[in-house]
Design goal:
about 350 residues; mainly alpha; N-terminal domain of TfIIb; Cyclin A, domain 1; 3-stranded antiparallel β-sheet; about 45% helix; about 5% strand; disordered N terminus; General transcription factor TFIIB; Znf_TFIIB; TFIIB; transcription regulation; TFIIB_cyclin
Length: about 350
């Protein structure tokens, strides 16, 4: 039997039951129609009830005959970095003072607005340089703590986020040079980014001293952009065609040369220039043709420097070959230091 209208269910011991057939086990709640009814006699016990389930707003594949599995929840997804400011209610018309009060109470907090801008810029940078997720998560940690301690002073633009990426990469040992980072961003110069990096280094020290959440507890400064770190990345980009075994040999020898060259070369070359010269030397020792197979111009291109700079640095490094090339390499390279070119 079906009843027209609505009848309130009765309660016995806190459990609802149908007042007509006295059944408690047959109470059915229809969340789609907003009704509560008796499954035995069909009496509508309540209508227009409020569902407490998750609200869904779209079924994007429903027009394709799918079962509606691709559904989207109402509101933004919860993000651990934000203070729960997702979602809200828009008020149209009405009392203007009430609208201002409502907007003040429900608008995204200032910190969250800055974080949203900062993280958006970080996502763009991640895509430009194919950064790993672990590095990006570290960037978010650093940016969040700096914003929380007011060390960014409301700045979350490209310079600041490039500097955060630079510091996070150095901390992880995945070095990125200043010149490399600014290349896709013509409005940011190497000098500007360098000044921003130095400012953020000091800000991190201040934030670390006042941080209570431990996000910077393990931050003990960043590892230097050493030539040994850089040469491994350059080798990874250039030596793939040599075969795995030879690539590893050249890379390890170049890194060893870099460590020794950093102590021997007194002229103030950039780490990228010194790394390029050391790689050039290692390639020669392993009898790789640096005119056709891996020319100096390709080394310079990967290092974001000029061919003349690479050759100039190598020219200063060449007389020190007996001091910078290790003698305990096993197996030894095919060529000796006496067979190295002079330029």
């Amino acid at each position: 039997m079906s009843a027209v209208g609505s009848a309130r269910s009765n309660l016995i011991g806190g459990q609802a039951y149908c007042p007509t057939c006295r059944s408690a086990a047959a109470i059915i709640t229809d969340h789609q129609q907003g009704n509560e009814l008796c499954g035995r006699c069909g009496l509508v016990l309540q209508s227009r009830i409020i569902s407490e389930e998750q609200e869904w707003r779209t079924f994007s594949n429903s027009d394709k005959g799918d079962t509606g599995q691709d559904r989207n929840r109402v509101g933004d997804k919860t993000d651990e970095w934000f203070d729960g400011s997702a979602g809200g209610t828009a008020m149209i018309g009405g009392d203007r003072a009430l609208m201002r009060t409502h907007e003040a109470a429900t608008s995204m907090q200032g910190r969250d607005r800055l974080l949203k801008t900062a993280f958006g810029n970080l996502s763009k940078i991640k895509g430009d340089f194919n950064l790993k997720d672990v590095i990006m998560e570290r960037c978010k940690e650093i940016a969040a703590v700096l914003l929380e301690s007011d060390q960014l002073k409301g700045k979350s633009g490209w310079k600041e986020m490039l500097a955060v990426v630079y510091l996070a990469c150095r901390e992880a040992g995945t070095t990125r040079t200043l010149k490399e980072l600014v290349e896709p961003y013509p409005n940011v110069t190497v000098a500007e980014l360098g000044r921003t990096v130095n400012r953020l280094k000091k800000a991190i020290t201040v934030a670390k001293a006042g941080s209570s959440d431990g996000a910077l507890a393990n931050y003990g400064g960043t590892t230097a952009d050493t030539p040994a770190h850089l040469v491994k990345r350059y080798a990874g980009q250039l030596l793939g065609g040599l075969g795995r075994a030879k690539q590893t040999q050249v890379e390890m020898l170049a890194a060893d040369i870099c460590v020794r060259a950093s102590e021997q070369v007194t002229k103030g070359y950039r780490p990228s220039s010194l790394a390029s010269a050391c790689l050039y030397m290692a390639l020669q020792l392993y009898d790789v043709d640096t005119r056709t197979t891996i020319p100096v111009s390709e080394i310079a291109s990967v290092a974001k420097t000029s061919e003349g700079t690479v050759r100039g640095c190598y020219k200063d490094l060449r007389p020190l070959a007996r001091y910078v090339v290790p003698t305990n390499v096993s197996p030894p390279p095919p060529k000796t230091i006496d067979q190295l070119s002079k330029n």
